[in-house]
Design brief:
By secondary structure, the chain is an all-alpha fold. The protein has eleven helices and two strands.
């Protein structure tokens, strides 16, 4: 699209003069009527009232949509540079594609509000008729006679003066209504130009801006990914393979404990039997009073073997306790892993709830 379509409006003085010309001509005609150059009478208070309304209209002209649209057209290059900067500032990358979340229409609305005051533009169409009606009542009040005439001829003169004053007073209301219609015509015309400019720019930058449907689709995809992550976490937490491996580990640990304990008791039993046999032999030797010295040594040796057997039993019990401790440590580790997975699932659920609450609040605001 050619930028000259926006820059062909020339100076905005022409738009200002167009808005100014017809209301000014109306005031000039009333001045001519007041001075007697035209065949209708205008009172001084009516002329002053119309002059004040016209001065207020001049103040409002720069806030009219046609005048603002002309300023936008003459500064289109600057506005487009600001638009490109705004699109870059609001860029969002989704699945390898980078586009802007700011729409052209939103940017132009903000730019348009920066040129004119919307508050003045909204009240202008109702201010002028109200000022005209106010001027009419002021003119009637000023032209109202006191009706203190003593004769009927003077009373007729006062009534004629009142009627002529009322007739000219309505010029203020007519002028206010005309300014309101004049304002609305150029306001609609300017808004139509702005709307056309927005549509043309939207066509130009369509490929650089995320559409609402694309953002909604991406949100649904993110929601599905979060749901899948929750399901995966649940599956990992309550996996049958995990429970099966845990049970197998427990069975292996307990089997190891039982085997170690059985071997320890077997060794202790063997040592005890050997010690018992040696003690019986020693007692027999003592009873027979043979080799008493060797018997004492044998007793000491058997006692040492007995103590060794007891120590072996203690070692077996210590290994048993160590195996039990190792088993409980393993259980604690597996339970800790389960708790961590449940924590991850809770965090994902909380994040999902917050996201849904935010979406609901956004939808409420949009409604």
């Amino acid at each position: 699209m050619d930028k000259s379509n926006y820059q062909s409006g020339g100076s905005c003085v022409g738009i200002y003069f167009t808005l100014f010309l017809i209301p000014f001509i109306c005031v000039i005609l009333l001045v001519l009527g007041y001075t007697g150059y035209l065949p209708f009478s205008v009172e001084m208070h009516t002329l002053i009232t119309l002059g004040l309304i016209f001065m207020i209209f001049l103040f409002f002209i720069k806030h009219n949509a046609s005048y603002s649209a002309c300023k936008i057209s003459n500064n289109f290059a600057l506005m487009e540079d600001q638009l490109q900067d705004a699109l870059k500032a609001n860029a969002l990358t989704i699945m390898g594609k980078t586009k802007s979340t700011l729409t052209v229409r939103d940017f132009i609305e903000g730019y348009f509000k920066g040129i004119r005051d919307d508050n003045f533009a909204r009240v202008a169409s109702s201010v002028f008729p109200m000022l005209g009606i106010l001027g009419t009542f002021i003119a009637i009040a000023l032209s109202m006679p006191d009706f203190t005439a003593s004769s009927s001829e003077k009373l007729d003169q006062e009534i004629s003066l009142l009627l002529s004053g009322i007739g000219t007073a309505f010029y203020a209301s007519i002028y206010g209504i005309f300014l309101s219609l004049w304002w609305i015509f150029f306001e609609r015309q300017g808004l139509a130009r702005i709307e056309k400019s927005s549509q043309n720019l939207e066509e130009i930058y369509d490929s650089r801006i995320w559409k609402n449907s694309e953002l909604i689709k991406h949100e649904h995809m993110q929601t599905e990914l979060k749901d899948q992550k929750i399901i995966q976490t649940l599956q990992e937490t309550f996996s049958l393979d995990f429970i099966k491996d845990l049970n197998n580990q427990y069975i292996r640990n307990f089997k190891t404990i039982i085997d170690d304990t059985t071997n320890s008791f077997e060794r202790v039993t063997t040592h005890m039997e050997s010690v018992s046999r040696d003690l019986r032999k020693t007692i027999e030797k003592i009873d027979e009073r043979k080799e008493s010295v060797e018997a004492v040594k044998t007793v000491k040796s058997d006692i040492r073997q007995f103590i060794s057997g007891v120590n072996s039993l203690n070692d077996g019990l210590e290994r048993f306790n160590g195996s039990v401790d190792h088993t409980f440590v393993k259980i604690d580790q597996e339970l800790a892993r389960s708790i961590d997975k449940l924590g991850e699932m809770a965090e994902i659920i909380v994040e999902q709830n917050l996201y849904m609450q935010k979406k609901l609040l956004d939808n409420d605001k949009e409604i």
